[in-house]
Amino acid sequence: MPNKIIIIGAGVIGASTALALLKDGHRVTLIDQDAPCSGASSGNAGAIVNGSCAPTAMPGIIFDVIRMIGQPLSPLTIRPSYFLKILPWLLRFVLQSRSSAVYKNATHLHGLTQHAVKSWRQLTGHTELSSLLRETGWLKVYETKKKFASTSKSRELLDEMGTNYEVLSAAQIHDLEPNLAPIYKQGYIQNDSLSIVDPQRLVEGMVDLFVSRGGTYQQFGVDVINIDNGKVNVRGSNGNLTTDKAVIAAGAWSGSFAQQLGDSIPLDTERGYHLMLPQSTADLLNRPVVNGEYSFVLSPMTEGLRMTSQVEFAGLSAEPDYSRVRSLLPAVKNMLPDVEVREQSVWMGCRPSLPDSLPVLGFSRQSNKVLYAFGHHHLGMTLGAISGLIIADLVAGRKPLVPVSPYRPDRFSKL
Ligand SMILES: Cc1cc2nc3c(=O)[nH]c(=O)nc-3n(C[C@H](O)[C@H](O)[C@H](O)COP(=O)(O)OP(=O)(O)OC[C@H]3O[C@@H](n4cnc5c(N)ncnc54)[C@H](O)[C@@H]3O)c2cc1C
């Protein structure tokens, strides 16, 4: 039966969910406090990494964290003012790096990512949006054999899950990316992956498509959500709205809504940064390339070469600190000698992250009238389309394409 449904948050997850619910015949209103795609979905590296399965908490992560803190070019920072706040999350995160947990998390991550490309094709097929996706693969390169060897656990997981990848020699890397400096001894590529040439245009285009097909977009900040008399009430700067069902897809800001409904979910943010290089530099690479030594990505996009990097724990409201991403420019030049390292713009976005690297997809504890779709950490662009399809299945009472029990909101209550 068609329902009146409100979705809070118009990032990639909200927009994908909106299109999937509309297709099922529901009357859907998508709400965002800003213009569509104002959060993490705009400034990312744009990779759709099919079959990705290594969780962020891998064995030995505790030693990596200790080693990285305080190093000037380290990809990880914890603001001292946020240290005590993030400590419980970090402890849970470290627990997730036990071998048994890593294998379980990898299996469930792969359960979703194996459908990434297929579901994006389904969502964008027969629309102009498909022209924003390119079949490029996802390439990682390493200067030293030692550093490459440190990825063996991740590659073992790819093997175990059956994800295609190819180990590359220096000559093969050069053939794929002739403009890279000839310093990369080894690498690997996941050929089945796609890249998005303009993530913001993709998500804005999805919202335009949603509106052109009869969906409603409203711009206002939501403060309160509750369930009363079998209806969901959503209250914010635009007054009150009443609806049959609601989906919380507000990315890193979703925690307070879940809290209001009695669900305590350890959602925090791993903030990330980008720095855009001039448009003329975009042609220097054929695909997104991960620099394995410094943990940054160079992604060729329509508006230029985008360098993304950093995991910063500082909460949702601290001012961005662009100094780290700027300090990586010499390493970018070292990687790509012909690049013009002239900064065009910088950006910071909030990845919505849970300690087990799995999103939350499912019903709130209080009622099946509210569903959660958030916590997609480093893989929200990869998982957007499949998450929308799963939420539509749950609303319709269909068996979801992927069993959702590993992503249930109450999975942390036992930890
Ligand atoms: C540097 C960086 C690189 C990345 N690279 C990749 C990559 O290559 N591949 C990949 O798969 N993923 C990548 N990611 C991760 C990906 O960008 C995120 O996981 C994804 O964008 C999360 O989408 P979302 O829709 O959940 O959240 P968001 O895009 O943040 O959207 C949430 C929306 O909710 C709105 N909102 C918040 N509060 C309210 C409120 N009270 N009322 C109304 N609206 C509200 C916000 O305005 C926002 O528009 C990267 C992230 C970063 C930071």
The gist of it:
By secondary structure, the protein is of the alpha/beta class. It has helices at 12-23, 61-68, 83-95, 99-113, 116-124, 145-149, 152-161, 170-176, 199-212, 255-260, 323-327, 329-335, 380-396, and strands spanning 4-8, 27-32, 47-48, 76-78, 133-134, 138-142, 166-169, 186-190, 194-196, 216-219, 222-228, 231-236, 239-243, 245-248, 268-276, 289-291, 296-301, 304-313, 345-353, 360-363, 370-374.
Spans of at least 5 consecutive residues whose pLDDT stays below 50 are none
Instruction: Classify the beta-strand content into a percent band.
Output: 25-35%
How does the major sheet shape up? 9 strands, mixed
Give the overall pLDDT as a whole number. 96
Attached small molecules: flavin-adenine dinucleotide
Task: Count up the helices.
Answer: 13
**Rg, please?**
21 Å
Provide the structure class: alpha/beta
Instruction: Tell me the total number of β-strands.
Output: 21
Overall spatial form: globular
Helix content: 25-40%
In whole angstroms, how far apart are the ends? 37 Å
Verbal overview:
The protein starts with a strand and ends in a 19-residue tail after the last helix. The longest helix is centred in the last third of the chain and has 17 residues, at 380-396. Helix 1 runs parallel beside helix 13. The model has no long low-confidence stretch (mean pLDDT 96). Strands 4, 6, 7, 8, 15, 16, 17, 18 and 19 form a nine-stranded mixed beta sheet that branches. The chain has a six-stranded mixed beta sheet with strand order 10-2-1-14-21-20, with helices on one face. The chain has a three-stranded antiparallel beta sheet with strand order 3-9-5. By secondary structure, it is an alpha/beta fold. It is built from 13 helices and 21 strands. Helix content is 31%, strand content 26%. It has helices spanning 12-23, 61-68, 83-95, 99-113, 116-124, 145-149, 152-161, 170-176, 199-212, 255-260, 323-327, 329-335, 380-396; strands at residues 4-8, 27-32, 47-48, 76-78, 133-134, 138-142, 166-169, 186-190, 194-196, 216-219, 222-228, 231-236, 239-243, 245-248, 268-276, 289-291, 296-301, 304-313, 345-353, 360-363, 370-374. Flavin-adenine dinucleotide (FAD) is lined by residues 8-14, 31-34, 38-41, 44-47, 221-222, 249-253, 272-274, 308, 349, 351-352, 374, 376-382.
